[in-house]
Automatic annotation (TrEMBL):
Record gene name: trpF
Domain of life: Bacteria
Protein name: N-(5'-phosphoribosyl)anthranilate isomerase
Stated family: Belongs to the TrpF family.
Organism, scientific name: Acetobacter persici
Keywords: Amino-acid biosynthesis, Aromatic amino acid biosynthesis, Isomerase, Tryptophan biosynthesis
Length: 221
């Protein structure tokens, strides 16, 4: 039997695309590591800085606050950061742009890395980027680069052991997240539509199950 990679002792969990209080409260209650606010107007989960600030203000501590942006210009980033305090900027952009954003704004940057085959897996993380998000390339005709509930072929990641922090995204839900972590050894996972009862509306019960199942993976010697 092929030995599976061993994930971190605590599989990190990010719940993305929060738009309402019940979902945010469930993330706090069940111990999500990160919560994500989407600042991309083509997404059904898009929020304004004021809405994100209101949600974040429901709990002073708790999960790290992440803002998601798609090819943002400096003006957009500055406007959002002026309206809500964010701990991380998660962006879709080039390696060069990601490094530039990190140096300009002094906020940790995560960069999306869409893949469809083994050769697409990155061998290094760009300077200034704290973490890479490994997710499927969007389908033809998609209006969004992510959040399409598309599942990656996890088997292409078997034996891939990067030296930098990364996170698995794409098509995850409470039923399959344990298998995904088992196969890929992902140290952290990101979910949005997989814990929703409707686009943009999170299910507290699904959030609880997702977090529990993501952290329940065990490995035999």
């Amino acid at each position: 039997m092929t030995q599976q990679p061993v994930p971190a002792a605590h599989t990190g969990v990010k719940i993305c695309g929060l738009t309402e209080g019940a979902g945010f409260d469930a993330c706090v209650e069940h111990g999500a590591d990160w919560v994500g606010f989407v600042f991309f107007d083509r997404s059904p989960r898009c929020v304004t800085p004021a809405q994100a600030r209101s949600l974040s203000g429901r709990h002073a501590g708790g999960p790290v606050r992440v803002g998601l942006f798609v090819h943002p210009d400096d003006e957009t980033l500055a406007r959002v950061l002026d309206g809500v305090s964010l701990d991380v900027l998660q962006i879709y952009a080039s390696f060069e742009r990601a490094s530039d954003v990190s140096s300009r704004f002094g906020v940790p940057v995560w960069l999306s890395q869409p893949v469809s085959a083994r050769p697409d897996l990155p061998s290094a993380c760009p300077a200034g980027v704290e973490r890479l998000l490994i997710e499927p390339k969007p389908p033809a005709g998609a209006t969004r680069p992510g959040g399409n509930a598309q599942q990656l072929d996890w088997s292409l990641m078997q034996g891939w052991k990067p030296s930098f922090p990364w996170m698995l995204a794409g098509g995850l839900n409470p039923e399959n997240v344990g298998q995904a972590v088992t196969i890929t050894g992902a140290p952290a996972v990101d979910v949005s539509s997989g814990v929703e009862s409707a686009p943009g509306l999170k299910s507290p019960e699904a959030i609880a199950r997702f977090i529990r199942n993501a952290r329940s993976v065990t490995f035999s010697a």
